[in-house]
Amino acid sequence: MEQTMELTTDQFIRDFEQTFNEQQQTLLQNATPTELFLALAHTIRQYYTPMWLERNESLSARQEKIAYYFSIEFLPGRMLETNLLNLGILDTVKEGFTQLGLDFTAVKNAEHDMALGNGGLGRLAAAFMDSLATTGYAGFGNGLRYKYGLFKQRIVDGYQVELPDAWFGSLGNVWETRKDHDAVNVRFFGNVYMADAGEGKLKPVYSNAQVLRAVPYDVPQLGYKNGVVNNLRLWDVEIPEEYELNYPTIADRRRVEDITAVLYPDDSTEEGKKLRLMQEYFMTSAGLQTIVKSYLKMGLPLEKIYEKVSVHINDTHPAVAPAEFMRILIDDYGMEWDAAWNATTKVMSYTNHTILSEALEKWSTGLFSFVLPRVFQIIVEIDNRYMAQMGAQGADYARVENTRIVRNGQVHMAHLAIIGGHSVNGVAQIHTELLKEDTLRDFYALTPEKFNNKTNGIVQRRWTQIAAPVLSQTIDKWIGFEWRNDIHALRALNDVVDNPRAQNDFWEVKQLAKKRLADYIEETTGVHVSTDAIFDVQVKRLHAYKRQLLNVMHIIKLYWDIKDNPEGDFTPRVFIFGAKAAPGYHFAKSIIKVINELANLINNDPEIGDKLKVVFLENYRVSLAELIIPAANVSEQISLASKEASGTSNMKFMMTGAVTMATLDGANIEIRDEVGEENIVIFGMTKDEVYHHYETHDYNARYLYDTDPVLHRVINTFVDGTIPRCQSEGSEIFDALVTYNDEYFLLEDFQSYVAAQARVSALYRDRERWMHMSMMNIANSDKFTSDDTIRQYAEEIWHLSLPHAGRHRAA
Ligand code: H53
Hints:
Layout: H1 9-24, H2 33-61, E1 66-70, E2 74-77, H3 80-87, H4 90-100, H5 104-109, E3 114-116, H6 120-135, E4 139-144, E5 149-156, E6 159-165, E7 177-178, E8 184-188, E9 191-198, E10 201-207, E11 210-222, E12 229-238, H7 250-257, H8 273-296, E13 309-314, H9 321-332, H10 337-347, E14 348-351, E15 362-364, H11 365-371, H12 373-392, H13 397-403, E16 406-407, E17 410-412, H14 413-419, E18 424-426, H15 429-439, H16 441-446, E19 451-453, H17 460-466, H18 469-479, H19 482-485, H20 500-525, E20 534-539, H21 548-564, E21 573-578, H22 586-603, E22 612-616, H23 622-628, E23 634-637, H24 649-655, E24 659-662, H25 668-675, E25 681-682, H26 687-696, H27 701-707, H28 709-716, H29 727-739, H30 746-765, H31 767-779, H32 786-797
Parallel strand pairs: 1-4, 1-13, 4-12, 13-14, 14-18, 18-19, 20-21, 20-23, 21-22, 23-24, 24-25
Antiparallel strand pairs: 2-3, 5-6, 7-11, 8-11, 9-10, 11-12, 15-17, 16-17
Bound molecules: (1S)-1,5-anhydro-1-(2,5-dihydroxyphenyl)-D-glucitol (H53).
GO cellular component, one term: cytoplasm
Catalytic activity: [(1->4)-alpha-D-glucosyl](n) + phosphate = [(1->4)-alpha-D-glucosyl](n-1) + alpha-D-glucose 1-phosphate
Family: Belongs to the glycogen phosphorylase family.
C-alpha cells in the first residue's frame, strides 16, 4: 500500500516561496543554486518533521524492538532527491521548479555529497538505512559526525592529490537536528581501580580520566512512500563545561576536536592508531549509553533488554561494543556478570566484510589498556571466562587458543565481536563459505550455529529512478509502473528482452546516458569520446586485489594491437576509471599515475584515434557514480577470486544494463546465477585454484613472463619508456608483477581476460545479442535489492517485528 504526501504543485510553490523569503530575503531569480537548495531542503524538512515525531511516538507507545546499526562509515551521497522521491513528491517539485523558471538540476547539484564513508562498507550502511525505513522496520544508525568526509581527489600531473572535504562547510548539514538533551559523557585514559561498594560488590574508581561530551545529531531516514522516518544518529565531540579548565589552549581543544575531525581515508587498514581507537570507542560508548537510557524509560527490567534492543556491529570498528555494554550494565547499573553477559550476547551481532587480515583490527594490549583501562579489564575477564568455559566443555585446545580475544599481546576485535554476540555473517555466499572454511574456521568449528550469510544489496530506487530517469520511463513503457513499488515486478521485462522495438528503446536509453557522460568527460578532461565505442568502466577504490592493473595490461595489449596493425578491424572502446587510493597506499597511487600517463599517450596518438580512449575521472564519489554507472556497457568486476567479499557496484551496473566482465568472486557469482552463464562474461581462476597456489607455493610469475611473448611485451611496456613520465611507477609495477611474484595472480589470469574481452567485442557487434544480454541483466536484478537483504537481517538476526506489517512487503 502506498502512502505518499498529498501535495499539489501550487501548494508546493507557495510553501517553497514562503520558506525562501523567510530565509534569503532576495528575489528568487537572483538566488544562487545553493540558496535555492537550502530553501528547498528547509521546505522538505517541514514536510517530514511531523512524520518523524509521529514515528518516534508510535515506536515508544508500542514498545517496539529497535535494531541499532553501529558503523564507523555512512555514505549516503546526496539526500535531496532521495528524500523527495521517498516522500512521493519528486515529480511535483520538479514541476514546481519548471513553473518558477528555476533549474532543478543545478539546485540538486548544489548539494554536497555526504561522504562519511570510503567505499562499499559505508555505502552499504547508507543503503540499509534507506531500506530499513522503506520496509518499515525500526532500525536506527549510529555513527560519527565527521567534520571532514572522505578527501576530495584532484589529479595533478597524473598524480592523486588529496584535499580536505569540508562537506558541511559554512552552511551546516541541512538535514540534521542537534539533540542536546541526549548528550552523554565518554571517558578515556587515566587509572582505574576497584573499590568496595558494600554488599560484597566492587565499583570502579577512576583517576585522571579524560571526560568528553558526546552530542548527537540526528539525520532522518525516510522510507519510500510509506510515511516512515527512522533515525541516523551521528555523534560529535565537545568539551564538557565542568572540565573546560583542563583545555586552556586552542591546541588542547583541537586535540579533542580531532576525534570527530576526519574520516579515516583508509579503506582496509588501520592507521593513526590511537585516534582511530578513540573514534571507535567514542561512537560505541555514546550510542550504547543512550540506548540503555531510552530502554529504561519503558520501565522494563534491564536483564531483558535483548527483547527490545539489537546492536549490530558493522565490521570490526565498533567491535568494542560487547565489552562496553558489559561495562555499562555492570558498572553503571550494578548488574551481575552472568545476567549482563546473557543480555550482551543476545543483543550483539556482527558482520564481517573482508577476509583481508590487515582489515581485521587488532590493538596492542599496551595501547588499548592505556586508552581504555576499564574496558580492557573487562575484556580480559571475558577472555578468561571464555577459556574456562570452553575448557569445561572439552573443546579442542588449539582451537580455543586460536579464537581467544587477548593473544600474543594483542586484542583481537573480530574475536570479541564473535564471542560477545550471537550471529556472524558474511556478505555474499562465497565470502561466508570462506569465513567458515578459512578465515574464521576455528570459530565455525566451535559455534557453527552463529554463522549465516546475508548477501549485500543496493537501493535500486537510487540507481534507477534517480540516477537513470529515462531508463525508468522506458521500463514503465514496457512493463508498467509496478516495479517502482515492487522491484520484483521487474521480472516482467524478461518477456520483452528479444522484442526488437524494446531492444531499440533500451539501446537508445543507453546511448543517451553515454552522451551525458561523454559531455561530462569532455568538459572535465578535454578528451572527446565517441558514444559509438563500448564504454568499459571500472570504478571502485584503488586496491591491488581489485586488479585495476589487469585492466591496464589489457589496454596496453590493445594499444600494441592497433599500433601493429592500424588498419585492422577493431571494435572501439572507451576505458573509464574512477578510483581513490588511500593516501598512504603508495602502490595504489602509482597505478593512478600510470593510468593517467597511459591515457595521455593513447588519447593523443592520431593513429589510435577513436579506436581507443582512456579516461580517469577524478574524485569518484556517489554523485559521480550516478552519472557514470548508467552509461556503462561493460562493468569490470575483476578482483582475484576470493578477495572481494561481495562488491555492490557490480549490482548497480547490472541493473542499469551493463554486461559484467567478472571473475568468480563475491556477488559476481550470484549475479551469474540470476542472469545465466550466457549473459555475463566470466574469466579467470576460481577460488579453489587460487587456494591451490597458496597451498603448493607453485606459482611462478617470472616463468609466465618469460614464456608468454604477449605478456612479456605488455609488462615491458611499463619500463621501456613507451609510457612517458612514469619511470619509477613503472618499475614498481614491474617489480610487483615479476620480481615479487605477482601477489594477485594477474599474469596467470591475463590470457583468459584477454580472450574474454575479445568475446565482449564480438558480442557488442551483434546488437540483438548484446541487447538481449543487457536487458537480461536489468530484468533479473531484483534479487539484489537491499530491501530484501534488510528483511533477512531483521527477521533472522535481529528478530524485529514489523510495525507497519504487510504494508510494503513485496508480493
Ligand atoms: O565492503 C563492501 C563489500 C566489499 C568490501 C567492502 C569493505 C570496505 O569498503 C571497507 C572495509 C571492509 O572490511 C570491507 O571490500 O567487497 O561489498 C560491503 O560489504
